[in-house]
Amino acid sequence: MGTKPDATQNVATLEFDPERNELGKDKRLRDGLSVAVQIGDNLWLANDETISLERLTRLADAGRYGRHRQFPLNDYLALPVPPPDDPADLEEVDIEGLASAGGYLWLVGSHSLKRKNPKPGDDPDKARKQLAKVRSDGNRYLLARIPLVDSDGACEPAKRSKQDGQELFAASLKGDDKGNELTAALKNDKHLGPFLAIPGKDNGFDIEGLAVVGERIFLGLRGPVLRGWAVILEVAVAADTTASTLRLQPIGPKECLYRKHFLQLGGLGIRDLCVQGDDLLILAGPTMELDGPVSVFRWPGGSSPDDEAMVPADALQRVLEVPCGEGVDHAEGMTLFAPDGGEASALLVVYDAAAEERKSGKSAVTADVFKL
After folding, report:
1. 262 in a structural domain
2. pTM of the model
């Protein structure tokens, strides 16, 4: 995979609205950032335990982003499970991928099951019962796009917009709270089908990366990892006659509804994707509940493969190593980043379980910036 080049690490400070930072149950927005994408002077982010997108704007102070705006997804999309009256019953989208392309902000949920985690102090019988509980959050089965419109120099989501004479509509892949067209297409897949019934953190099916290039949508899987090989799914979608519903389209010479690309990442799963020119950058980390290691790899030409690919280790370039803590600072999202708003020359990485030293004030947290 090559050797690691020198990378200059810096930070960007992300300042959230203190009131919106509090999620209840001792959870905070800044502590669990899962995705990031930069569009001009704006940084778009999400916490994987919410159903909203967060927008921060570059401030005059170098390296600081603030003026927090929050955009609930249910204002633009028909979620599989609408928000309940009691916020405690909210079913998260588990947003694990975010991308900007074609006038849209694209997003994807994890599509994964989750297993109950015993609490410290539970007696053995209760702990065993907790570990046996597997559930599905219906909003996790979301692959969607939302048009962006210009508002006083800042982009904002909209249900519909018009760009270059073309109507753009907010839309999501056809499905419900039990699954969607993607999970239905994968049900009988010999590699991935058996893992749909396994929780994500148990090496089950778990989407944690999104990149969009023209008509191509790349979905990076945290799991399963098969004998050290990670998986990227490639799909294409088009709106049906209702305009608010997307349908999978046949792709590739075999005209299947998806293509699989296997990458030898040394046993790591995919935590995020982003496009740089013709290449795909891959944030790779453990598929299981481990702290590290975490690396960024480059797949040369990965944004336009001619057919399904088997990518061996020596065909990938290791770009940099990402730091991780013990029980904290789990790298979850990355975006090509232009610190001064110009040409992107760095990667910005955000973290789940942010370490205390990253936090400042009531609602600020730092992200790492690595010069490319």
Report:
1. yes
2. 0.95
